[in-house]
Write a structure and sequence with these properties.
By secondary structure, the chain is α/β, with parallel strands linked by helices. The chain contains five helices and five strands; from the N terminus they run βαβαβαβαβα. The chain has one domain: Response regulator (Rossmann fold). It has a five-stranded parallel sheet with strand order 2-1-3-4-5, with helices on both faces. The longest helix is centred in the first third of the chain and has 13 residues.
């Protein structure tokens, strides 16, 4: 699937390297990119831009201040139409499967860090197309 129209992607991650990498990839694919370092900043951007101003959010789980789970719940409550891809590099075990929990909280897609560029592109494009995309 190839998306021809530029979309706006909000990258929510406290890691500047992850932000920069996602920015370079998304811009290469023709998308506009905004950033937030934590969940509170993401919510401020959404309140300012409105849900229609952001096409998809790529949200990290482990962040200072407001973590990705709390942010995801707030996003889905305040902006139910917003599409959210949750990512994490956190190790999982039988007691803590973060991506599975994110899906239960309403994530439209999940992706495990580190990921190849093609996986992020596919996840974003599937989300733009309205297809629920799941990865692990």
């Amino acid at each position: 699937m190839t998306i021809s129209m530029a979309k706006t992607v909000l990258i929510v991650d406290d890691d500047k390297l992850v932000q920069r990498t996602c920015e370079l990839l998304c811009k290469r694919w023709g998308h506009r990119v905004l950033f937030a370092d934590d969940g509170d900043a993401a919510l401020r951007i959404l309140r300012f831009a409105g849900a229609t101003g952001i096409d998809v959010i790529v949200l990290d789980i482990i962040m200072p201040m407001k973590d990705g789970f709390e942010t995801l719940l707030d996003l889905k409550r305040l902006f139910p139409s917003v599409r959210v891809i949750v990512m994490t590099g956190a190790r999982t075990n039988a007691d803590h499967n973060y991506l599975s929990l994110a899906r239960k909280f309403g994530a439209d897609g999940t992706i495990k860090k580190p990921f190849p560029p093609s996986a992020l592109r596919e996840m974003i494009e599937c989300t733009f197309g309205g297809t629920l995309a799941r990865s692990s």
